[in-house]
Amino acid sequence: MTTDAATVTYAERLTIPWWAWPLGLAGGGLVGVEIWMGAGGVRAWAPFAVILPLTLALMFWVGRLRVAVTGSEFQVDDARLPLSAIGEVVALDAAGKREALGVGSHPLAFVIQRPWIGGAVQVVLDDPADPTPFWVISSRHPVELATALRESAAR
Question: Which of 151, 152, 145, 110 is nearest to 127 (CA)?
Fold first, then answer.
């Protein structure tokens, strides 16, 4: 993701929490033990040599997502939203996020949701040409993200 560092007003990476790393490695180790099952030879070490690095790579990949507000757009991983298309921004706590993503949610909404992050921001779009009604993006600091979006969109 390329951004001009001088124009970034908010940036956050949606990383995995510390406690998920031991759990993920324990799960990968358990899968390795299930494949090993007491066998000798290559089957004794290969499952661990393959599955544990794959588990680490998967966890790094899941936690790589970046959310940023620049001078001209809202960036979520590879998705870009021009600030001129933003209508309303609402910071959501865990209950608000659950409601926004619940049964009554719009099927065309753009959602980047991480279950280990309680808060989120709902960005309602003001673009008649776009069928997406709103974005819901997880954030550890939803109030700060919503403020940065409002201030940048007002310029």
Answer: 110
